[in-house]
Amino acid sequence: MQLHEITFTEATPIDGYGPGFFRIAGQIIEGAACVAAEGAGPWGGFQDTGPLLALRGEVDVIFIGTGAEIAHIPAPLRAALEEAGMGVEIMSSPAACRTYNVLLSEGRRVAAAILPV
């Protein structure tokens, strides 16, 4: 098997994560984070819809990372994102980070809202 290094030219990759933090494009974000190709910042969790709805028209799908384990998200959050025209995929935060990076490297219009592990 041949492995290829992924290059992110004008995008914001998730470099890594650990207990209570994410490293995104070389910057450490403590706690939950919201990341898209244009940049990243802190996220207030399931009740904080502002940063996610601000991505309307810029992303086609948003990955919601629910921490170390997959869990349900509040129905109003899902409804608000779907009403804004964004697809919503729920997964554990490690899976959301990996999926986001792969699709970002393909030039897809994706974002991730991730809770720390």
Strand order of the largest sheet: 5-4-8-6-7
Computed Rg: 13 Å
Q: Mean pLDDT score, rounded?
A: 93
Provide the β-strand percentage band. 25-35%
Helix and strand content put the structural class at alpha/beta
List keywords for this structure.
five-stranded mixed beta sheet; 31% strand; 117 residues; three-stranded antiparallel beta sheet; 8 strands; single chain; alpha/beta
Structure in a nutshell:
This protein has 117 residues and is of the alpha/beta class. It contains three helices and eight strands. The strands form two sheets. A five-stranded mixed sheet has the order 5-4-8-6-7, with helices on both faces. It has a three-stranded antiparallel sheet with strand order 1-2-3, with helices on one face.
Structural commentary:
The chain is α/β, with parallel strands linked by helices. Helix content is 22%, strand content 31%. It has 3 helices and 8 strands, in the order E-E-E-E-E-H-E-H-E-H-E. It has helices spanning 50-53, 75-83, 93-105; strands at residues 14-18, 21-24, 27-30, 33-36, 39-42, 61-65, 87-91, 110-114. Strands 5-4-8-6-7 form a 5-stranded mixed β-sheet, with helices on both faces. The chain has a 3-stranded antiparallel β-sheet with strand order 1-2-3, with helices on one face. A hairpin with a 2-residue loop joins strand 2 (21-24) and strand 3. The longest helix is centred in the C-terminal third of the chain and has 13 residues, at 93-105. It is globular, with a radius of gyration of 13 Å.
